[in-house]
Design brief:
The complex is a heterodimer of chains A (486) and B (186). In chain A, strand 1 (301-302) and strand 2 (310-311) form a beta hairpin. Chain A folds into 3 domains: 39-270, no CATH class; 271-297 and 316-404; 406-484, no CATH class. Chain A is an all-alpha fold. Chain A has helices at 3-9, 16-36, 49-54, 62-75, 94-106, 111-136, 142-173, 177-204, 207-212, 214-238, 242-270, 274-289, 320-346, 350-380, 392-405, 415-427, 435-449, and strands at residues 301-302, 310-311, 459-460, 483-484. Chain B has a domain at 1-95: Orthogonal Bundle (Rna Polymerase Sigma Factor, Chain: A), CATH 1.10.1740. Chain B contains 9 helices and no strands. The N and C termini of chain B lie far apart (45 Å). The chains are: A mainly alpha (486), B mainly alpha (186).
Chain lengths: 486, 186
């Protein structure tokens, strides 16, 4: 075996035809995505909406862009673009659909009309979400399904935000107060409608997918709540007829009561059972007996669709202490919400009623978050495998086990191993960069090659630049920084 | 070294919104990534599909705003993870046809290394590369076929440099042992 053989292996190459066609496909995808997301990370500064409209065509031949723009303007009606408009988040044609919509907004002159279009687009995004979720039910691959639902949810979040901003702009700049009220009312109504649909669609998802998209759901509902509240705020400020305002608010309070009920039930269900709380307490007990930092590494890591490995989400903050804290926070929150609700029912003057609604909504979103955190913690039970912690000896066991995962070191080198080691090192290893480093390697390897029955020598570990990945490979014990003392 | 600087430059261009720069990354690395994936799945079509996916994921990763130090290492790292995912979902592993593979290799530019015989190659592939564990095979491919530095390998395999050297050393030992055992039998 020599280097030439490896050189020979380098001669595998892909076929030219495939290379070219794959390049074409990839670049098409890249172009699509980069103009769809031009407002996002690549242009990190908050690109204005106009930027998004202009950018999409930058990759086309100028003449083609003009033609396409012409088609859009002449067609003007959304329906004329046909199949494109039926596409959903995650589809190839979806970016084009969004571009066309953006162009429509851009060519609309008045800010009131713009706001109305943005509002109707928000409803459209929710319809897409419904479609995506109904398709997700047939999808067997959980990851695929949840990714698409996530995308659709993000689209809703974005559009609600944009519509909200457009309404705010009307509120500030418009001179027509009737229009102001109309868009503010529309914003509130649509937000509530959207909220209802989101909750309905999400609850229809399978449990696996629902868990995956939990974060996005909270995010979108937060945004929707905020918009609805700001709509209410505007209505109160703009409408002069007291009676109408009260009527309008009464509706909203009723809605809110239903929401409170739901959120408190969910939170109550998420509370730790006595048994689970006890388990967490046992974990705390065991943890305190183990040197800090050692346990974090037993949790492993996950690989998500081919991207570099990332630690499991719950790990960085995972301590049973926090789980228990969250639990008692949740208990307090339930009482707190009940109190606020009483206050809400007693409240009369509109402005402080609005404050009360706002506080209550904050608490509700708090409750939702706590619910999901608690559920996450519950799942983490059992990640730290701790056999019945009845006495101290268990904790000690854990520590020694970890130690024995490292092969025992024996620095006494018998001539055979030395020979193998040299032979092997002599061939290919010599190519390695620095000779000095190799020395350390060899001695480390020799030590490791030899029989590992007498493990009495002291192993002094110098701090290896705090690299926290190191422990992921306990079977590879030797760091070049480690020093063996005879 | 020059390649690295070009990569940095291309990366900047991509991040500032020029997708064309990604085409240059593709051109620069498609052969290497294909070869690496090919040895891991030993099937032309699978290797083609997976290689395309590697570039798409890499694009998504860069576009997602993640900081990237070394594009080359990132590509191999994503390739490695994709192959792992691939085997996880396709439990059945296609049997490698060593003879065909050796023949293809031997027929390519036969004058270059005449002293390497068809049998030797077959032995290296069948008893050597494909009998090793995943990690051993990866590190040998990355170091000696792909010619990456230990630093890059440590980024790809997510280990410290020291751990990579040890792994490489062991991998070579295992490879030698596997081949020697075979020769002894004959």
């Amino acid at each position: 075996m020599n280097k030439k053989q490896f050189k020979k292996l380098q001669q595998i190459t892909p076929s030219q035809e495939w290379k070219a066609s794959s390049r074409k496909n990839i670049m098409a995808q890249v172009h699509f995505e980069s103009f769809n997301n031009a407002d996002k990370k690549i242009h990190s500064n908050n690109a204005k909406r106009v930027g998004v409209v202009v950018n999409p065509f930058s990759w086309m031949q100028p003449s083609l862009a003009v033609v396409l723009l012409g088609v859009i303007i002449l067609g003007s009606s959304v329906a004329s673009v046909g199949a494109t408009m039926g596409s959903l988040p995650g589809d190839r044609l979806y970016p084009i659909k969004r571009t066309i919509e953006n162009v429509q907004v851009a060519i609309t002159p008045s800010i009131e009309e713009k706001a109305k279009i943005e509002l109707s687009l928000a409803s459209k995004r929710v319809e897409e979400l419904q479609e995506v979720t109904s398709r997700a039910k047939d999808e067997e691959d959980t990851e695929k399904a949840s990714n698409r639902v996530k995308q659709a949810l993000n689209e809703v979040t974005k559009q609600v935000q944009i519509a909200h901003e457009a309404v705010e702009k009307v509120k500030e700049d418009s001179e027509d107060s009737a229009e102001k009220i109309a868009v503010a009312l529309d914003l509130t109504k649509r937000s509530q409608h959207i909220e209802g649909i989101i909750e309905e669609t999400v609850s229809s998802l399978s449990e696996d997918v629902r868990e995956e998209v939990d974060g996005e759901v909270i995010q979108v509902l937060d945004g929707v709540d905020e918009s609805s509240l700001s709509g209410i705020d505007s209505v109160i400020a703009l409408v002069e007829d007291e009676e109408k305002v009260e009527e309008f608010l009464a509706d909203h309070v009723e809605d809110l009561q239903v929401k409170v009920e739901k959120a408190t039930t969910a939170l109550a269900q998420a509370l730790l059972t006595e048994e689970q709380a006890e388990q967490f307490r046992l974990e705390i007990e065991a943890l305190t007996q183990i040197t800090e930092g050692e346990l974090i590494d037993t949790t492993g890591s996950t690989i998500s669709f081919g991207l570099p490995e990332q630690p499991v989400e719950v790990i960085p903050t995972l301590t049973p202490v926090e789980a228990l804290e969250q639990n008692s926070a949740a208990q307090e929150l339930i009482e707190d919400i009940a109190d606020s609700l009483v206050f809400l029912q007693e409240e009369e003057p509109t402005q402080s009623l609005l404050d009360a609604i706002q506080t209550l909504q904050d608490k509700l979103s708090n409750a939702k978050e706590t619910t999901s955190i608690l559920n996450e913690y519950k799942q983490s039970l059992g990640i730290l495998i701790i056999p019945e912690v009845s006495d101290e000896s268990n904790a000690v066991d854990l520590v020694t086990e970890e130690d024995s995962a490292l092969p025992a070191e024996n620095t006494e080198v018998d001539s055979n191993t030395e020979q193998t080691s040299n032979e092997v090192g002599g061939d290919l290893l010599v190519e390695q960069d620095a000779n000095t480093e190799e020395n350390t390697d060899n001695s480390a390897l020799e030590a490791e090659n030899s029989d590992n029955n007498s493990a009495t020598e002291t192993l002094v570990e110098e701090d290896s630049n705090g690299d926290n990945k190191e422990e992921e490979v306990p079977a590879e014990p030797v760091e070049e920084e480690r020093v063996f003392i005879l | 070294m020059k390649r690295k600087i070009t990569d940095k430059f291309l990366l900047l261009k991509i991040q500032s919104g020029d997708p064309e720069a990604f085409a240059q990354i593709y051109d620069g690395y498609i052969d290497d990534i294909y070869r690496f994936v090919f040895y891991k799945v030993s099937h032309q079509h699978e290797a083609e599909d997976l290689s395309s996916e590697v570039f798409l994921k890499t694009w998504a990763y860069i576009k997602g705003g993640n900081s990237v130090k070394n594009v080359r290492a990132l590509l191999y790292r994503i390739a490695r993870n994709l192959v792992i995912d691939y085997y996880r979902t396709n439990k059945k592993r296609t049997a490698v046809n060593y003879e065909d593979l050796s023949e293809i290799l031997a027929s390519k530019d036969p004058h270059l290394d005449e002293e390497i015989s068809f049998d030797e190659l077959r032995l290296l592939l069948e008893k050597g590369i494909y009998s090793l564990t995943e990690d051993y095979r990866d590190i040998i491919l990355l170091r000696y076929v792909e010619g990456l530095t230990i630093q890059e390998i440590s980024e790809i395999m997510d280990r410290t440099k020291g751990a990579c050297r040890v792994l490489l050393h062991r991998a070579i030992k295992a490879l030698k042992l596997a081949i020697r055992k075979d020769q002894d039998l004959e």
